[in-house]
């Protein structure tokens, strides 16, 4: 069955009607199978350890002989093989997730302590625990839906299962909007940091930065991209050492009274304590946000059953090894004059410029993993026709006619779901991804978002994707198997997520 998590290539038998049908006609029962999913579905039918394949979890269905009868006519066997050569190991998943969640959070979270003093440390630990818990809820929901459908699933599939077609559309828009906001923010913030170092205009720096990150459109899969994410993890700890070294030498160092940089933060002096707590919790949760990419990594893992463990260790490890030391040391040294990013407080110009360059590279490497899922979704939408349409997309038709250079077309399903785009390679992928790089370039140039702007734009998506939706999906799909504690926790987390998000948004608007 699907829960057995085979980590090696497998060869099994696929059940299809004996009539001659094109490959697209048996891509899946109810349009939800792919090549690998059909094999998993066959195992589910034969093993019969759960009630009726395709039934909604939580409905009491007793095992009966009829439940094991396939919903299609007697069939012939067709061998299906799936390759795991491009699947992610646990370490590669860790690199991707840490590269995604750190982003701006590593140097901006110390600002939380300025608002509520040392209580911010307790709130940081609480935010990390809540984020890790809701990530587990999300993975459990993905696990359940994957077993039900017998194929890989995404955030939008969860929305469709729980709320129908409208839920699928809204969830998909929310997830992809979060990718676009974060990647645009990373590109613009990296450019803003480098303007003073390079002495060039903002637009010129943005173009140079966009050219530097354009190469990532050539990366075919998450497994290949893991190299850049691993480098980014190394940069994260290098930045931490520079910041802590500058702050602790000498230990009595006092921050600059007037920083050379201008960083706009909301004035919370007249805000109630509840408003400060909501704003701070939302800020800390944003630094741990990685839920939008979890379904992508879950689907790409060689052993998806390890996803919950990897995600929890990554978030708790990032909190213990990166966030807590930087927050505690910088706040202890700089106090109420602490700015974000924290290198704005550095007195030594050489060390400060080094930290700025490292931080900018870190943002650009985070940009690559943040934009990758959006690029892949966009290229699939452009290249592949709608499910069950029976026709080729314009790009596939052009490839089949030989109209695109360096492009091949194949009627067979790709063994590597990340390495190709429906049989159309290289040129189509580069064109689609270049369009998105240019989109982030233009959006970043015309909006020129500050860190506060990015945080404000991400308030609602973060609250929904990190707190509310994982709880709702878990309740809908795993409700009858959930413990009483889990049920209470999902309700409390959903309510807290909604209240803190809108209260924080009100604070930002008023300030």
From TrEMBL:
Superkingdom of source: Eukaryota
Listed transmembrane segments: 94-112, 173-192, 198-218, 225-244, 277-298, 310-334, 354-374, 430-448, 454-476, 488-509
Protein name: Amino acid transporter transmembrane domain-containing protein
Membrane topology: Multi-pass membrane protein
Cited PANTHER family: AMINO ACID TRANSPORTER (PTHR22950), AMINO ACID TRANSPORTER TRANSMEMBRANE DOMAIN-CONTAINING PROTEIN (PTHR22950:SF349)
Species: Phytophthora rubi
Region (Disordered) location: 1-27
Predominant localisation class: membrane
Subcellular localization, as worded in the UniProt entry: Membrane
GO molecular function list: L-amino acid transmembrane transporter activity
Xref: Pfam families: Aa_trans
Keywords linked to the UniProt accession: Membrane, Transmembrane, Transmembrane helix
Segments forming domain Amino acid transporter transmembrane: 87-509
Cellular component terms per the entry's GO annotation: vacuolar membrane
């Amino acid at each position: 069955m699907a829960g057995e998590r085979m980590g090696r290539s497998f060869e099994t038998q696929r059940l299809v009607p004996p009539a001659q049908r094109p490959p697209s006609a048996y891509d899946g029962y109810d349009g939800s199978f792919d090549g690998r999913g059909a094999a998993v579905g066959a195992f589910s039918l034969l093993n019969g350890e759960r009630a009726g394949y395709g039934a909604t979890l939580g409905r009491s269905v007793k095992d009966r002989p009829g439940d094991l009868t396939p919903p299609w006519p007697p069939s012939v066997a067709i061998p299906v093989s799936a390759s795991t050569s491009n699947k992610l190991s646990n370490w590669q998943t860790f690199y991707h997730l840490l590269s995604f969640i750190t982003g701006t959070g590593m140097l901006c979270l110390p600002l939380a302590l300025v608002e509520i003093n040392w209580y911010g440390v307790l709130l940081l630990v609480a935010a990390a625990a809540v984020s890790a818990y809701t990530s587990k809820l999300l993975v459990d929901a993905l696990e359940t839906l994957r077993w039900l459908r017998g194929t890989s699933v995404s955030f939008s599939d969860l929305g469709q299962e729980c709320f129908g077609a409208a839920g699928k559309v809204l969830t998909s828009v929310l997830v992809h909007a979060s990718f676009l906001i974060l990647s645009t923010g990373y590109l613009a913030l990296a450019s803003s940091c480098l303007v003073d170092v390079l002495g060039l205009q903002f637009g010129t720096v943005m173009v140079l930065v966009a050219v530097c990150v354009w190469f990532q459109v050539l990366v075919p899969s998450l497994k290949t991209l893991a190299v850049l994410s691993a480098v980014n993890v190394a940069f994260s700890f290098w930045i931490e050492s520079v910041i802590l070294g500058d702050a602790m030498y000498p230990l009595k160092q006092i921050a600059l009274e007037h920083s050379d940089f201008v960083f706009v933060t909301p004035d919370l002096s007249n805000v109630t304590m509840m408003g400060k707590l909501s704003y701070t919790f939302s800020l800390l949760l944003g630094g741990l946000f990685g839920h939008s990419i979890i379904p992508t990594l879950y689907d790409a893992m060689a052993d998806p059953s390890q996803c919950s463990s990897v995600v929890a260790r990554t978030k708790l490890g990032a909190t213990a090894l990166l966030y807590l030391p930087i927050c505690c040391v910088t706040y202890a040294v700089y106090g109420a004059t602490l700015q974000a990013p924290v290198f704005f407080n550095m007195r030594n110009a050489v060390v400060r410029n080094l930290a700025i360059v490292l931080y900018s590279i870190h943002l650009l490497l985070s940009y690559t993993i943040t934009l990758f899922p959006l690029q892949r979704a966009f290229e699939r939408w452009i290249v592949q026709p709608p499910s069950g349409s029976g026709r080729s997309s314009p790009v596939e038709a052009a490839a089949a006619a030989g109209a695109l250079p360096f492009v091949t077309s194949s009627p067979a399903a790709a063994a590597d779901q990340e390495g190709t785009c429906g049989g159309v390679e290289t040129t189509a992928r580069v064109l689609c991804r270049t369009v998105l790089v240019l989109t982030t370039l233009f959006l970043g140039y015309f909006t020129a978002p500050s860190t506060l702007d990015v945080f404000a734009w991400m308030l609602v998506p973060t609250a929904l994707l990190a707190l509310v939706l994982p709880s709702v999906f878990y309740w809908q799909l795993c409700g009858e198997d959930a413990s009483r504690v889990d049920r209470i926790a999902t309700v409390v987390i959903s309510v807290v997520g909604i209240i803190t998000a809108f209260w924080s948004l009100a604070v930002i608007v008023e300030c």
